[in-house]
Amino acid sequence: MRFSAGCIALFTIVSLVVNFILLLTCISSPIKELALYRVNVTQLAHDLHNQVSNDTGDGLPTDLLHSNLPSYWYWGISGICDVHLGQPERTHCRREFLPKQHILTLVEESLRPSVDNIAQDNDIRRVLASWNSTLGRLDGPDLHDRDARFSTLSKAGAALLITVITFDIFTLAASLFWPTNKPTPRVFLSTFNGLLAIVTGAPVAASMPHGMYVAIRAREFSVITLVIVFIGAALRLVSSLVGCCLSCWGSDNSSSRLPVTRDSVSRLGGQGKKARPLPRQRQLPEHRQPLKGQQQLSEPQHPSTGRTPLGNRGTYNEEVGYLGEKYIFELFGKKHDLPNWSGEQNWTSSLRSLHDMFSPFDQDRDHADFTYHDTAGAMAEALRQEGVRVRQHCSTDTTYHIEVKSTPGRCETVFGVSVNQTRLMNKYRRESNSVYILVRVFNVQGPNVGLRWLTDPLGDDDLEFRGPEKNRYYAVRTRCVLQV
User: Does 270 lie in the same domain as 374?
Assistant: First the structure.
């Protein structure tokens, strides 16, 4: 996942730099070779002379040439360069976004640096008159049509290029700062930008045949620019597709896509109007590690207990789980002061061994994290004070089974529920004197711990089950509106 984001970011940076250079072509002599096309001025004079005079072309059109005219005109998006072969010091670029292509104006601007006052130079004035006379004898309407098409296509290409640069900036920001667990927007933006970059090349390439509209043999297209426009854009698109494939590959390999079996549906479907089979959906990507707020769903090393055995200190997930269970233990013991509430008797979870005062508990496969037999209605009253709706018949002689699911992140953070735990949910929902409650403890490591009580986990529409996977765990997400 990080590799795909880095791949997209790298190609975006390259594209951003290249597009800026392409946008600034012919603004200065060092980047003049990235011009869209160039025109051989001497060849242009030959073409014009032949078209007007219907001559064989053996003689030089000396009336159109001048020693101060450049060897080539280089056309870019932001300027035109006068290039004198063998005299690089005489190369001169005029900055002009979407440069003009009226030939007489180009001739005049090319000759302007050579004298202070063009009107005082009879030789230059004669050359300008010859260019004006020659151009005036050509097909005027056709020239105007070609000029208009060139102008329209050039503006469209420039506008799209600026749009691509803008999207490059957004794509780069998304690649660097968008959460790695949400790759879809980043990949979509990069793919769209790659397609837009390819589209940008269409009006740029289409404008070339209309550029320097009467120069047939004199015009030379820039292969380098076409490579930048199309192949560069194609590389951007390929990088986006590679990022998309890597994202999908990372998601598929983080967990297997297994369908819900009939056996699991029969266990989880239960009875009652809210019971429903679990949808077939894929597990969330593996890269969402606990540091970002998700309990890691790991393969139980001892299936008999349904939990990973504890070491001296416990794993990170066990520490998170312990903090949530400790919070609930103190909530009922200190805040609500439940009668006969004790860790040895009511804390029926192996995680209590992380507490120095309690002995290990190894029979949690058949128990929720907390088990409390309420004969006086104290638990029912405590739950009502916590805002939990308790059924009327649960006031007395009811056994409460409370399963704690803790995450350091937000309420919507995915957590794991084992197949065995869903078996207990289904079992106790059918018993009239038992209540199974799943309590979400989120932001468990923060100053403001949040709680969400779910009195019917299998039938509650606010829980979204996905799986089970190979490790016999469901990935469950809580649909939370309010968070603490």
Answer: yes
Cα separation, 436 vs 380, in Å, equals: 13
Q: Are residues 159 and 280 in the same domain?
A: no
Could you tell me the CA-to-CA distances from 123 to 18, 94, 112, 120, 126 in Å, in that order?
Answer: 43, 24, 13, 9, 5
Instruction: Let me know whether 44 and 111 are in one domain.
Output: yes
| Residue 307 DSSP code | B
**Is residue 483 in some structural domain?**
no
Helix (H) or strand (E) holding 318: helix 316-330
Please write the tens of the pLDDT for every residue from 261-316. 333 333 333 333 343 343 333 343 333 333 333 333 333 333 333 344 344 444 67
Contact 167, 193 (CB under 8 A): yes
For the four alpha carbons of 56, 60, 66 and 69, in that order, the dihedral sign comes to: positive
How far is it, in rounded angstroms, from Cα 251 to Cα 428? 35
Return the structure tokens found at 14.
Answer: 């390259």
Q: Which of 232, 240, 235 is nearest to 21 (CA)?
A: 232
- Which domain range does residue 224 map to? 2-250
> pTM of the entire structure?
0.41
